[in-house]
Design a protein that fits this description.
This protein is α+β, with helices and mostly antiparallel strands. Helix content is 23%, strand content 20%. It has 14 helices and 17 strands.
């Protein structure tokens, strides 16, 4: 892959290559919910992909390359725009992409970040919804912006930050929408700058590009006014600005400059627009229901001087371990390489707060460097009552997460950890199952609850909605009080809420149903309307 700029040595337009100095957020234009793609400005409607479904947007024919090396220029590998889409498919569900952008803001805490705002805004050109991420971290200078917009480059150190692969910003933004525009302001080496960069799958597709081109403009603001930084010619700089204005939600240079007004001396804004649709033409992201279960447990330790603001409302972080009944702490020393320092991993394990009323789901929440990687990882067999309602929490910094941060790499350390967790559940169950109505484990026969079961049968529709298998249904004594389950609502007219779940248990149900419920369910938890 080449680090070369565009053919005319214009450093304002770069060929996508390498970075993860990731960022968060962008410009605000309005506030209005939209369900289906609205039609407004006919000229702007022409600047849309024919296919707005994420899983279908990469299905198109690639024509012959128009690239011809200049005399004396070496041939080099190029990044086709189609790769932006295929690269983003590493995120199987959209909230994993949102979590990546939150991680970028959290990684800015050492640089002074105190908040990240996540909001829904309106693209004034077509009245469609867009996603806004805004943090007050150190921001990026022009060089940092180019690295952020490139593939595989990361200046983050794995000992102190969540991101390290140099891929998260590209995969996450492209998973959420076809296009993203980034605004960043920074002071580095005595120079104050502000930069705007556009990564637009729509632009690349509709203009027939066979390499990823990212138009960018930079300004020196050291003297308190925005002086364009020109690397090639003024014409090149103007071409980049005009490209950004044509393909972004903003229509003038003045509008672009307004996006920096609430950034202050340093920080970053990211706007993701042309959000993806599902096969029915509905936005993948729902903006209607109210829940922040995932975000509330995304980070293990509570932040002291940092807030995640969802549509203006601070998200309350929840301590899963603190909500457990009859908790126990188990120490585990993984067998690391001889050259590695010995580590001790402490796991808090116990019954969920609602036990014995709610036993159908269980598992370990495994974090890496404070970030939740694998939620409610069930290590016991389906259909086995052993471990029902048992939840564990641990931070496993000794194993590596996968690139999408939604699972761990399958290494020998990972396999041994899984075996150790199975043993933890078995040991805890033997000592404590009687506390939630089961016979002591040393009683002969199956380990079923003592006396008449205090459960009611869960309908097959509800089992499907929550991802509960029929063999587990007898273990769940109540129907859960949660938001409607999207398309499953009409299947369950008999369902009435019986108990109110804690935030932790609600998130447990949320993750237990990941395999079967539609994507809108999960996103509605996050994109809640707060009045």
């Amino acid at each position: 892959m080449s680090g070369a700029v565009n053919n005319n040595n214009n450093n304002n337009v770069i060929e996508l290559e390498s970075s993860d100095d990731e960022v968060e957020e962008a410009g605000r234009v309005g506030e209005q919910a939209a369900v289906r793609v609205p039609v407004s400005d006919p000229s702007f409607e022409k600047l849309k992909l024919d296919c707005r479904s994420f899983w279908q947007a990469g299905n198109y024919e690639i024509g012959p390359s128009s690239f011809v090396p200049l005399q004396g220029e070496l041939e080099h590998a190029r990044v086709h725009p189609k790769f932006l889409h295929s690269n983003a498919t590493s995120h199987k569900w959209a909230f994993g992409a949102i979590a990546e952008l939150l991680d970028n803001a959290v990684d800015e805490i050492p640089n002074g970040a105190t908040f990240v705002k996540v909001d829904r805004i309106i693209n004034a050109k077509d009245n469609s919804p867009a996603l806004l991420f805004h943090d007050d971290g150190g921001g990026m200078n022009p060089d940092g912006m180019r690295k952020c917009m490139s593939l595989g480059y990361s200046s983050k150190t794995s000992n102190t930050t969540i991101g390290q692969y140099g891929n998260g910003f590209k995969t996450s933004t492209m998973r959420l929408g076809a296009d993203v525009i980034v605004f960043s302001r920074s002071t580095k080496s005595g120079q104050a700058t502000q930069s705007v960069g556009l990564l637009s799958y729509t632009y690349l597709r509709l203009t027939g590009q066979d390499d990823v081109i990212v138009p960018m403009v930079d300004f020196d603001i050291s003297n308190h006014w925005a002086e364009p930084i020109v690397y090639g010619s003024q014409d090149d700089w103007t071409t980049n600005l005009n490209t950004i204005l044509e393909w972004s939600p903003f229509t003038s240079k003045e509008e672009l400059m307004m996006q920096f007004e609430d950034i202050g001396a340093h920080g970053t804004k990211v706007v993701v627009y042309n959000l993806w649709l599902n096969d029915e033409g509905i936005y993948e992201l729902s903006f209607d229901d109210d829940d922040e279960a995932y975000a509330s447990i995304l980070y293990l330790r509570k932040f002291k001087n940092f807030k995640i603001l969802l549509r203006g409302k601070p998200i309350e972080q929840h301590d899963i371990a603190g909500d457990l009944q009859f908790p126990d702490v188990v120490s585990y020393k993984p067998q690391l390489a001889a050259t590695s320092n010995e580590v001790t991993v402490k796991t808090t394990i116990g019954f969920i707060k609602e036990a014995p009323d709610l036993l159908a789901v269980a598992g370990f929440n495994v974090y890496h460097k404070n970030r939740l990687i694998r939620p409610f990882w069930k290590v016991t067999r389906d259909g086995n009552s052993v471990g029902c309602g048992v939840v564990g929490v641990l931070e496993a910094n000794f194993i590596e997460p996968a690139h999408d941060k939604q699972d761990f790499e399958r290494s020998p350390l990972f396999i041994r950890l899984e075996g150790r967790m199975k043993q933890m559940v078995m040991d805890y169950w033997k000592s404590n199952c009687h506390r939630v109505g089961y016979k002591p484990y040393n009683v002969r026969g199956d380990n079923h609850p003592a006396g008449p079961p205090k459960t009611q049968k869960i309908s097959h529709a509800v089992q499907r909605g929550y991802g509960i298998s029929p063999t587990e249904a007898h273990l769940a004594p109540v129907i859960l009080s949660t938001p409607s389950i999207g398309n499953h609502q009409e299947d369950r007219p008999d369902v009435q809420p019986i108990i109110e779940l804690s935030a932790v248990s609600a998130s447990l149900i949320f993750f237990h149903g990941l395999g079967s419920a539609p994507l809108q369910v999960f996103m509605s938890f996050f994109f809640a309307s707060h009045g």
